[in-house]
Amino acid sequence: MIHVIIPDGYRGMIEVERRSDAPPIPSRDDILELHIPPSGVLQVSDVGPLAQWHRTQAQWADGTALPAAEGPPGSSTLVRLHTIGADDQGSAWFLVGTDSEARRALAATGWAAGPLPP
Questions:
Q1: According to DSSP H, which parts of the chain are helical?
Q2: Nearest to 40 by CA among 87, 6, 76
Q3: Are 109 and 86 within 8 A, CB to CB?
Q4: What is the pLDDT along the chain (118 residues), one digit of tens a residue?
Q5: Could you list the residue range(s) of the whole structural domain that residue 94 is in?
Q6: What distance in Å separates the CA atoms of residue 38 and residue 60, rounded to the nearest whole number?
Q7: Range 75-80, long-range pairs (CB < 8 A, 24+ positions)
Q8: Which DSSP letter does residue 106 get?
């Protein structure tokens, strides 16, 4: 399980960047915890666990639950945590936003095919 804690009110892309001089992803009771800073960029020593199949939970820093999207974006207007993908530079990417914003982010990365919504 991956548990993502996001700054209150944050909206946009999140990068979990692999850097050899960064600390590992903290773990508590076999749950990896990603504490996203206000910049939206978290540096960790290994993003490998994010590339493996996992369940994702998310919450705002104040403890309020943030739904995590499961599967490709649909038509929901709810703000949710979306998994965008990983790049060849060693970063994993997420988005806090609506399904429409997630489709745009996926299209911009080239990791998903299909037309952008109107």
A1: 48-51, 99-109
A2: 6
A3: no
A4: 899 999 999 999 999 999 999 999 988 888 999 999 999 999 999 887 777 777 889 999 999 999 988 776 777 788 999 988 877 788 888 999 999 999 888 888 766 433 333 3
A5: 2-109
A6: 12
A7: 75/99, 75/100, 79/11
A8: H
Q: Which of 67, 25, 61 is nearest to 43 (CA)?
A: 25
Domain membership of residue 114 (yes or no) is: no
Whether residue 115 lies inside any domain: the answer is: no
The pTM (predicted TM-score) of the whole model is: 0.83
Number of structural domains the chain divides into? 1
